[in-house]
């Protein structure tokens, strides 16, 4: 079958693209590389069953693109910055990719009459008052706090997806993904496991925010991919909303100690204040996933960390300066105008100038061509 994966060049997306290719499916990856690099999908471009459409999923699809994307059996919508560092850098884009971007992909699914799978997140539970979090829990989320452009836009993406299911009887499925880690993560993407591993390997201090007693549950990437694959391919799951994560809950302090010891590091830990709205506890209730998908995580934290540390010691340091091989698969228009309001453009540039955040290099909005503001 033909599968469209938005955000297919990201950490989870690249693993998922490979999994579908291995199972003999055709994959079209839509990505604008805003939080990833092209080399994540480079090796797949030599497959006749893989195509890359380099575009922003927020922008409306042209007729040519619609026909290129036609006859897909499943759309899996992963495109969104996912780490706090990235979604703060790309704050408006995050809000828009989860709202307008989700709408674009739902419309495409509606016109293709195909299945739609949304990558949602445990962040929709906010700072939860219930443990572990089951799918029935409605969350404790700030609509306007510093994380709201991610949390609330994911909640809205769930709302839109559920609406298309109820109103248009679209076969939709929603995965609420809890913290996932493993080979393929970027060293500098700001998530806790790569942060700790890169610091420990360099014998630099590991930074813990708050007192370190806050908990997270970490799911190894192969387990998550198995869950997502089953959710996307099994019949009879229309309308399903399901947690995918590992219920093995650990404190951040414990995680830091484990990573330091597995890296054979002498790095110390330093403590900084907890950011606003940082959740205190996170742990998925996976009863529903186990029942519906016959799924549960298999890789323990220690084994998963050993594989991830090994990746960071070797693959993550591969020199990226080598020219990529000529792609075989289709690459659609390399730059597509995005119809964001020009005032966004101006506000973004003003902020960049104020913060000096681009260190003299042109900011994203200067490098990209923008279309007219919508009427
Ligand atoms: N990794 C996790 O622990 C985790 C946890 C919960 C939810 N999720 C969700 O899973 C999805 C994938 O996460 P990830 O960890 O692979 O993140 P990632 O940042 O590695 O990948 C996201 C991909 O989406 C692409 N993208 C972002 N905005 C885009 C746009 N407007 N148009 C086209 N492409 C765009 C990026 O370039 C990147 O390739 C996200 O939706 C995220 O919210 C991830």
Shape: globular
What Rg is obtained from the alpha carbons, in whole angstroms?
A: 20 Å
**Residue-averaged pLDDT, rounded?**
86
**CATH topology of one domain, anyone?**
Rossmann fold
Low-confidence stretches: 318-350, 357-375
Structural class computed from helices and strand pairing: alpha/beta
Beta-strand fraction estimate: 5-15%
Order of helices and strands: EHEHEHEHHEHEEHEEEHEEHEHHHH
The CATH homologous superfamily of one domain is named NAD(P)-binding Rossmann-like Domain
* Cα separation of the termini: 38 Å
Main beta-sheet strand count, sense and barrel state: 7 strands, parallel
User: What is the CATH class designation of one domain?
Assistant: Alpha Beta
CATH architecture of one domain: 3-Layer(aba) Sandwich
Main features:
globular, binds nicotinamide-adenine-dinucleotide, 375 residues, 13 strands, Rossmann fold, 13 helices, disordered C terminus, two-stranded parallel ribbon
Overview of this protein structure:
The protein is α/β, with parallel strands linked by helices and 375 residues long. Among the domains are: 2-184 and 218-247 and 283-298, NAD(P)-binding Rossmann-like Domain (Rossmann fold); 344-375, no CATH class. The chain is built from 13 helices and 13 strands. It has helices spanning 11-22, 39-42, 63-68, 84-89, 91-112, 148-168, 192-201, 221-233, 252-262, 287-293, 301-313, 342-355, 364-367, and strands at residues 2-6, 26-31, 50-54, 74-77, 115-121, 172-177, 180-181, 206-209, 215-217, 219-220, 240-244, 249-251, 269-272. It has a 7-stranded parallel β-sheet with strand order 3-2-1-4-5-6-11, with helices on both faces. A two-stranded parallel sheet has the order 7-10. It has a two-stranded parallel ribbon with strand order 8-13. Strand 5 (115-121), helix 6 (148-168) and strand 6 form a beta-alpha-beta unit. Helix 1 crosses helix 8 (221-233). The radius of gyration is 20 Å and the shape is globular. The protein starts with a strand and ends in an 8-residue tail after the last helix. 42% of the residues are buried. Residues 318-350 and 357-375 have low confidence and may be disordered. Bound molecules: nicotinamide-adenine-dinucleotide.
């Amino acid at each position: 079958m033909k599968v469209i994966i938005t955000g297919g060049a990201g950490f989870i997306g690249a693993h998922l693209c490979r999994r579908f290719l291995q199972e003999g499916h055709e994959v079209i990856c839509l990505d604008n590389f805003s939080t990833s690099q092209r080399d994540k999908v480079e090796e797949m471009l030599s497959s006749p069953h893989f195509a890359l459409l380099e575009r922003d999923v927020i922008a409306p699809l042209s007729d040519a693109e619609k026909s290129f994307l036609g006859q897909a059996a499943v759309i899996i919508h992963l495109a969104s910055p996912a780490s706090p560092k990235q979604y703060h850098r790309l704050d408006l884009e995050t809000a828009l990719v989860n709202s307008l971007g989700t709408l674009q992909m739902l419309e495409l699914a509606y016109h293709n009459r195909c299945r739609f799978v949304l990558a949602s997140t445990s962040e929709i539970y906010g700072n939860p008052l219930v443990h572990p979090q089951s799918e029935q829990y409605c969350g404790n989320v700030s609509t306007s706090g510093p994380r709201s452009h991610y949390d609330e836009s994911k909640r809205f993406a769930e709302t839109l997806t559920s609406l298309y299911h109820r109103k248009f009887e679209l076969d939709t499925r929603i995965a609420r993904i809890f913290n996932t880690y493993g080979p393929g993560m970027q060293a500098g993407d700001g998530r806790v496991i790569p942060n700790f591993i890169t610091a420990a390997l360099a014998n630099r201090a590991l930074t813990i925010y708050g007192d370190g007693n806050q908990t997270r549950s970490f799911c190894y990437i192969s387990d998550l991919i198995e869950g997502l694959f089953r959710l996307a391919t099994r019949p009879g799951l229309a309308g399903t909303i399901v947690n995918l994560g590992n219920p093995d809950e650990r404190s951040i302090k414990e995680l830091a100690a484990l990573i330091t010891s597995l890296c054979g590091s002498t790095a110390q830990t330093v403590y900084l204040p907890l950011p606003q709205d940082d959740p205190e506890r996170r742990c998925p209730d996976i009863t529903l996933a186990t029942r519906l998908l016959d799924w549960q995580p298999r890789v323990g934290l220690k084994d998963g960390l050993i594989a991830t540390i090994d990746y960071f010691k070797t693959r993550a340091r591969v020199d990226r300066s080598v020219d990529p091989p000529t792609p075989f698969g289709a690459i659609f228009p390399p730059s597509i105008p995005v119809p964001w309001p020009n005032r966004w453009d101006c506000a973004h540039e003003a902020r960049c100038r104020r913060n000096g955040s681009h260190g003299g290099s042109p900011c994203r909005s200067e490098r990209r061509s923008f279309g007219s503001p919508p009427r």
